Amino acid sequence: MGLFNKNNKRAVVVGLDGVPHSLVEKLTADGTTPHLAELGAASPFARMTVTLPEISAVSWPSFATGLNPGGHGVFGFTELKAGTYDVRFTNSADVKAPTIWDRLGRIRKRAVVVNQPSTYPANAINGALVAGFVAVDFDRAIMPPPLRAKLRALGYEIDVDTVKCREDHDLLQKQLMTTLAGRRKAAAYLWENEDWDYFEVVVTGTDRLQHYLWDALMEEAHPRHGFCLEFYREVDRFVGEMFARARDAGAAFYLLSDHGFCGVEREVYLNTWLEQEGFLAFDGGKNDSLAALAAGSRAFALDPNRIYVNVAGKYPRGGVRPGDVPAVLAEIKEGLLALSHNGRPVIRKIFHRDEIYDGPYAASGPDMVAVAHPGFDLKAHLGKAEVFAETNLTGMHTYDDAVFWSAEPPPADVKITDLAKLVLANY
């Protein structure tokens, strides 16, 4: 068992991926989550705004670094390969600012970080790091290497099979429970066997359940509603376990989500809209890859809601002169704000780059980010014939309904970029 220096200040962070403040209010009020209710009785849960786009690949680095994407360099799960229109997945090397555990390592503090997204492949750490999704190789997700065999023996899984579980909800239910159980076992093992000054563990299953079963979670008559409540009771028990451990260790305790959630009515394909409105064209009649983007194109989108002007000198077939960029953005903004479906406006707000990003990497970010009204899930998927389509997902992200808890009430209008400073104040 690790020997803990009681004179050292310590902090524990539990992340609940995608859990909205509004849902926490509901589940604590109706008795589903008594441990969360106990936290809420001691100090109120805060509604928190996250960085944009409102996805895990962006939000978790924003939490860990205390910076918006212009400061840490990650703007999405995907980016273009330099000098091309080919898309690649981002990874831990794209996080270009020091994290909480990086900073603690510099002052010889030890950290245990379990399942935070955008940490794959796992880098060396003064402590232990188990990367979160997207992690395609189990061994490259874990540092130090001797920990890999132990986690395998504990039945640890990084994530559910998101492809199969999207179609097979019986499998989803099974894998949600087994993955959470493995996460709990790993947290218990690392708590007892690692000396640590900072301990963080993130639950991903909450996000997965809500993407696939938001309707079941919200509707009592749904046949899977009982399972959704059962899963949240298990998540709540885990929160209670972690809080009790933190309390007994004399450590500060924090809980957060990385974005909110709401129901989906339609997916909305931004590249299809750009194509139909004359901003985007493809060579050879194939619109299923940006690699076929035609030279006359003025704009394109990357998932989920990032819009880029095809600027000359910046992109291989860019034709928009830098001086014409504001006019192109104004035209796109006007068109998107006028977009409607069955009489309902689709776009809630559009942010220009300089409104939401600052820092050394801001220029690499999208020229604008569109935020939809609840129910319209913006996507940059290619090859779609229509702008609107039904989806077998039932839940989507929101940016202004994340949740945060600490024993001391946080600043008013708390943002996810405020949290690293709060955590590091313990040291």
What does it look like?
With 427 residues, this protein is α/β, with parallel strands linked by helices. It folds into two domains: 11-262 and 396-424, 3-Layer(aba) Sandwich (Alkaline Phosphatase, subunit A), CATH 3.40.720; 266-390, Gyrase A, domain 2. It has 14 helices and 21 strands. Strands 2-21-9-1-8-5-6-7 form an eight-stranded mixed beta sheet, with helices on both faces. A four-stranded antiparallel beta sheet has the order 12-13-17-16. Strand 12 (299-302) and strand 13 (306-309) form a beta hairpin. Helix 8 packs parallel to helix 10 and helix 9 packs across helix 10. The two termini are 23 Å apart. Residues 1-7 have low confidence and may be disordered.
> Distance between the terminal alpha carbons, to the nearest Å?
23 Å
How much of the polypeptide forms β-strand, as a percent range?
15-25%
What's the overall geometry?
globular
Helix content: 25-40%
Q: Based on DSSP secondary structure assignment, what is the total number of beta strands?
A: 21
What descriptors fit this protein?
Gyrase A, domain 2, Alkaline Phosphatase, subunit A, single chain, 34% helix, four-stranded antiparallel sheet, disordered N terminus, 2 domains
